[in-house]
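> example.struct
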């Protein structure tokens, strides 16, 4: 499967230009000269190999880094594993075994038959959990990945120990819609970062861009998969995916988190999601947007660590 479409090539070019113009060429930070041979190597998702799990729902491409209790990260709209900020993954992997993977039809992950839905992607995620023998795992979903995480907790509750829902919406049909202007800007590589980060957080946006283009062979979803994901998101938010209307059946402890300046997900939706999920707790980050978890990794990862204990 081709890993880089024309749109993704534009993404890579736009982000690379931003990095060079802002904070220098992308690349991993070299190890300190004082590091000794006996010291354990810190987590480094940039060097983790891409593996392929054979699951009941087809092959799934994934990577694993760190040690400790497992945390499965579920990516959002149009992204691949390469869209997770390396600094965020490595910080979480300091205390946990972090597994990242590609959603249906991206990278080495098999497409699903029929119409793509949030529940269908959740079932494929469940199949990965089974194939990797994770049993009960903590799940963190970002944006569309948070929708998949909710559906997973509804459809396969015994596989989810704790749930972190970042910048995402409920599937009950009551959520405010994604603003059209923000959605259009997200689809344009030249303006996407301005939707993910507030205007006064240019340094955080540059750091995120530098990190993701450091992945070897940076790639993402094809235009066709993005169109399918868009339809799945619309169905979910309209309350037409049955799992989205059953959020009261989620019994795993849940942490809902977002930035107060999220242009794609109005903050009212975070309150609705917290209301609809029993045992859910909400935390909002001021002057942060849809990518708050990458903007404020230093503040969010310790919160996530405490919640996951």
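> example.seq
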């Amino acid at each position: 499967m081709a890993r880089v479409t024309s749109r993704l090539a534009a993404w890579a070019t736009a982000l690379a230009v931003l990095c060079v113009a802002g904070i220098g060429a992308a690349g991993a930070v070299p190890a300190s000269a004082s590091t000794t041979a006996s010291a354990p190597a810190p987590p480094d998702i940039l060097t983790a190999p891409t593996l392929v799990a054979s699951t009941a729902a087809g092959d799934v491409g994934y990577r694993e880094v760190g040690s400790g209790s497992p945390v499965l990260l579920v990516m959002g709209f149009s992204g691949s594993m390469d869209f997770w900020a390396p600094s965020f993954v490595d910080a979480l992997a300091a205390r946990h075994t972090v597994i990242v993977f590609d959603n249906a039809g991206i990278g080495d992950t098999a497409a699903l038959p029929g119409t793509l839905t949030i529940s269908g992607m959740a079932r494929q995620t469940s199949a990965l959990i089974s194939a990797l023998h994770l049993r009960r795992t903590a799940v963190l979903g970002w944006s569309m990945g948070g929708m998949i995480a909710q559906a997973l907790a509804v459809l396969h509750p015994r596989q989810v120990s704790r749930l972190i829902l970042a910048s995402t919406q409920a599937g009950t049909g009551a959520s405010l819609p994604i603003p059209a202007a923000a959605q259009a800007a997200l689809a344009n590589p030249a303006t996407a970062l301005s939707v993910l980060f507030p205007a006064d957080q240019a340094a955080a946006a540059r750091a995120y861009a530098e990190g993701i283009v450091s992945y070897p062979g940076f790639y993402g979803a094809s235009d066709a998969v993005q169109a399918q994901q868009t339809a799945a998101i619309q169905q979910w938010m309209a309350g037409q995916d049955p799992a989205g209307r059953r959020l009261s059946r989620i019994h795993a402890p849940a942490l809902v988190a977002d930035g107060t300046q999220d242009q794609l997900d109005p903050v009212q939706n975070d309150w609705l999601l917290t209301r609809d999920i029993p045992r859910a707790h909400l935390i909002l980050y001021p002057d942060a947007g849809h990518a708050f978890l990458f903007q404020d990794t230093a503040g969010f990862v310790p919160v996530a660590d405490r919640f996951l204990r």
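> remarks
The chain has one domain: 6-22+42-308.
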